[in-house]
Write a structure and sequence with these properties.
This protein has 733 residues and is of the alpha+beta class. The protein is built from ten helices and 38 strands.
Length: 733
Amino acid sequence: MAHLLVENLSSSSSNNRQITSASSCHWALESCTLTDPKVIALVCFEQSNYAVHLHPKDKRGYRSIVRLINNDQIFSTINRDYTSVERIGLALAMTLVTEAYNRVVPIAQNAVTGNNARLLDPKTVTIQLGITQEPIFLHGHVFGCGDPERKYIDDVQLDGPILGTLFNMNTSSPSESNHDKKVSWKSDEINKVVRRLETEIENIHHAYKIHGLTVITRNTFFNIYIVRHGETDWNTQKRLQGHTDIALSAKGKLQACQLQEKFAGIHFSKVFSSDLIRARSTAELILGSNKSTINETPLLRERCLGTWEGRFAGELKSHLEQTIDVDNFTQEEYLSFKWDDTAESYSDAYQRLQTFIRSIAFSTPISDDPILLSSHGEEQCNRNQTLILLHEQNIRDSLYYENERNESNIPDAFETSGVVLRPDNLIMYIIFDNTFQIGVFCTWLAIRTINCTNKLLDWPDNTFNKLNSEFEGIAYNSLTDTYFIVQETISSNVSSNEYNSNIFEVQITTNVTFSSINLIQSCRINWTFESTSKGFEGLEFMMHHKRNKNYLLALCEGNKCKPQSNSEDPVTSLGNGKLVVLDKHETTHNNSCQWVSVGIINLPFDIKFRDYSAISAYKQNTSTYIAVTSQVNSQVWIGIIEEIDQNPYFRITSSNKTGVYNLPRTIVNGSMCAKEYCNIEGVAWINENQLILVSDLAKKSHGVLCFRKDESIHYFSLPNMQESMAIYPSHCS
């Protein structure tokens, strides 16, 4: 019997199996969602999910990949044996995609390759699944054959393969004949091919439902209101409830009735509830005279706590502290942990909740009205409200597939440092402190309304592209349709021990035919820093209507606008955030242009941030909202900024939105509130209730959890919206 040599420990428990390391750079290890421009469709069979996407590095035959995916645990799909159900699902998905290709090209072909053993050592009879450069993953290829010079989809040439010859899928040698070497996608070709194949799949996928195949080609958007049941006596006593059926207390019934008032006028198309009485009663009281049918399901139950149900939460905490070293668990160990066989792990609860979410995602919506879920929850981590994640995307992934495979144009890292929205909300511009290039990214609105391409724009002098820009903030000038970009610090002209900042004014042109950056002016800021590490981190353009003047607000990274000294108490230094108000002095015969400080705005003392990483203002009717972020605290503060007559010409006040908002926390090492958004460096308002945040490259000192969210774009909504639209970028949503 052959032994197996595999690449990841989780795929096998055999003692004879050796472990090697897999490269994390291979495209097979990337998650797939419908926001990815190369993804054609997502397919679900039984509990398995498959992505259909264009091959990222080879367009010959409009080649696509059909592969098994698990966006939550990418490594769980590689370097292992695959079940019969998983293989059947792949076969059905490939049959569907091949039929779609038959409607486009003269001949459609497919191949299942690379899913079996890579190497066999005849002496030790050891089979190696995967190598460092190439993992084993369950997948197949679908491609078209015909006239290589013909354009079967719009103006996109087929470019091979040649009929009657062996199709070498991996060749990249320039010496190969035409159409027998890899051909890179052009930036505008991917969208055209994806749209055509998507249309063909939509036309035929209903016939595959009888075989258990569910096909999704477009994200479905609907509002879901999730409520926790009202209070019970056991909640008050801090007893563990789990699956024990405890009724609402008088206070709990009152809480549910108050929710009914909040939801007055809202008609729910569907109502789902846990089958436990405390959740069911909450749903009934919310609906009142509304005759919506309540669908009860055990899938929405609280986590089963087994033999500990009915006992005090503090007892369980003490027991675990004495018997289990929970704090040193890995995240995987923590999520799968059960104190005995009567309890349910977090992973168990997650699996049944995922089953429920899949069921409503695949069901046909009755109407556009929202859905109500009445379920269970745990105590909040702290008193701060938490932003609601709507969507997020990795910057490298968003750029890579639209840059004609020219990796030389893409930096090794994306040290994202600022973001601003174009006035039409179709495009966002992102700056990085490790390159002078500026990123152009399509927003959700653009993806739905225009033909939009993500790209990097070169600095006017492209020799600067490889240099560290020190860009830290970007702001839009609505009067001239230009953008201001601030450099955190630059060397002073006066002393080697002093540092200033600098502001570029640029014009950015982005349209279908032409994109460029035009440098208008570069002006120093008349402000001195003691070091390079704590300069200006954010920038906003403000008009003062009473004075008929325009200013820039520059956000200092450090409290008191300086680095914290070793002798300074880190706690007492908090609450000293500052905005420097800058007025522009134009170039004269004797002096170069410069930005001069005309005042300092002290941020409210109750903003206890350790650092300040970005700022954005949004004018709405008579109020102008301001958002300030902290990288270290992983928080956002919201307030109001108003004009005043005297220096510093603006003041910050409160509103119904004012307060500190957490970015979502996650479970890790026994803590319910561990940070995973560790690198927020930019913020921009979408509207009065939604924000775009961007993340810098995570530092090694931050830990592995922070790398999950770094170098990314995040869409959030404020939690105090009357109607929040929470859209989850799941592969089956």
